[in-house]
Design brief:
Layout lengths: L4 E5 L5 H11 L3 E5 L10 H4 L9 E4 L2 E4 L1 H11 L12 H23 L10 H24 L13 H15 L15 H10 L3 H10 L21
Helix pairs in contact: 1-3, 1-6, 1-8, 4-5, 4-6, 5-7, 6-7
Bound molecules: glutathione.
Glutathione (GSH) binds next to helix 4.
């Protein structure tokens, strides 16, 4: 049997997306907690895995991989079924939107949640106002893709890495940041994404992860703050 992957995770962190992908794939893995309550992501032991000090990191036979999009793509290439393989005509379409979710939607949320990492504190509200608009339009783009009958990689018959990445971003936008306007993203304007969230969260793989990380039974469509059995989300 292949050695299990080692996923360095914290509850409800970006590692959630990777954990769901691993569960969908049925790939053996061990989840190792990065204890955010003591900033373990900044400790030398973790920095030796990911010098950026960000969660997740995945130990693989090819070495440690970090950056959520890169890990998803690597896993999808090694275990077929959740993204078009390299010679599939749909690969380019998938890559465009994977990079969009990673570089725009997820990156925007990161600025929303951690503005102090990007701008002086006195300008944080202004940054957040800008990101709120940007995120609204990024989610609108996802909504458009889901209803587009030509686009089968989002909201299609079988779950893809785009589905789980987009649904996790939807989760976070409904919960965080706690110090900004509620409903800063108007989820009511995304009925197709919400329907996808309802469908995806029923997957046995998603349910296994929500139990493991204490996310509640409807982690994407009607999320509650994580109450994990171990570790902390922040
Ligand atoms: N670009 C990174 C972002 C990951 C990220 O934002 N991780 C957060 C948790 S959700 C983190 O590690 N935050 C801790 C910190 O910034 O100190 C990726 O795609 O993996």
């Amino acid at each position: 049997m292949n050695k299990p992957y080692i996923l360095h995770y914290a509850p409800d962190n970006a590692s959630l997306i990777i954990r769901i992908a691993l569960e969908i794939l049925g790939a053996p893995y061990e989840a190792v907690l990065v204890d955010r309550s003591v900033a373990a992501q900044q400790a030398p032991a973790y920095l030796s895995l990911n010098p950026l000090g960000m969660i997740p990191a995945l130990e693989t036979p090819d070495g440690v991989i970090f950056e959520t999009g890169a890990i998803l793509l690597w896993l999808a290439d090694r275990h077929a079924g959740i993204f078009p393989v390299s010679d599939d005509a749909a690969r380019g379409e998938g890559l465009k939107w994977l990079f969009f979710i990673s570089n725009s939607l997820h990156a925007g949320l990161r600025q929303m949640f951690y503005p102090e990492k990007f701008i002086a504190a006195e300008h944080a509200a202004k940054l957040r106002d800008g990101i709120a608009q940007r995120s609204q339009s990024d989610f609108a783009q996802i909504e458009y893709l889901i209803v587009d009958p030509e686009m089968t990689l989002l909201g299609g018959a079988t779950p893809t890495i785009l589905d789980i990445y987009a649904c996790t971003c939807l989760r976070w936008a409904q919960l965080y940041p706690t110090t900004y306007a509620d409903n800063w993203v108007d989820v009511e304007t995304f009925p197709a994404l919400r329907a996808l969230a309802k469908r995806i969260e029923l997957l046995q793989s998603v349910q296994a992860v929500q139990v493991a990380e204490g996310l509640g039974p409807t982690p994407f469509s009607n999320p509650i703050y994580a109450n994990p059995p171990v570790g902390s989300a922040t």
